[in-house]
User: What shape does this take?
Amino acid sequence: MRTLFKLFKKCFCNKYSLLSFVLFLAFISGIFYNSEVHKPDLKRLYMETMEITDQPPVSPLWTQYFSNAAYKLGPHNIKFSAQSCSPPEIDPGQDKTDPDFLRKTMAKELKTGEGCFNFMVQLQDPDKYMPIEDPSIEWKVSDSPYITIAHIRIPIQEFDTVEQHTFCENLSFSPWNALSEHRPIGQLNRIRKEVYAASSKYRHERNQTEIPASLDW
Assistant: This one.
């Protein structure tokens, strides 16, 4: 419990506290929620999380995103990734000390050009060690390479306005807003369902806007 307490304190003392807190909930679920499920290696998962969040990307449009948790794709279990279609273009005038530099960078980029991502899926191989319930275990690309199945294009636009900020603030997101054929799987995603719904309810109550009846599809 002493280790968990230290981890809990760290969750609220770093700049990525929300991500860390969600992971903390996942850790707790692995210990207390289902004793029969293989429990993640807490220290390893925590260290890996801190490593990937230690340095921010140069831009939201020039990085690679991973689902981390698993999903269904028809009869398959998958993880997915979205990777920039081209190598990053670094702005030499970027001020990373500005807490809003990522938003400002993306606003500047989308004024003159579109964003593009390759959407890729990684199929689970039952003959390889690619667990569902332990998201701390990376599915090795050598065991199952990513397959590009689509392209995501973000058109030229101006989103950094008061109207767009208000619109965005009153949106709700959940990975469970999906077809049953694409549903999230695994305990981390089950936790996310409750956490995202609670977050949406709190934010809409605070903003005095209509609370969505459900975040499911």
Notes: The chain has three domains: 1-55, 58-160, 163-217. The domain at 58-160 is CATH 2.40.180.10 (Catalase HpII,  Chain A, domain 1).
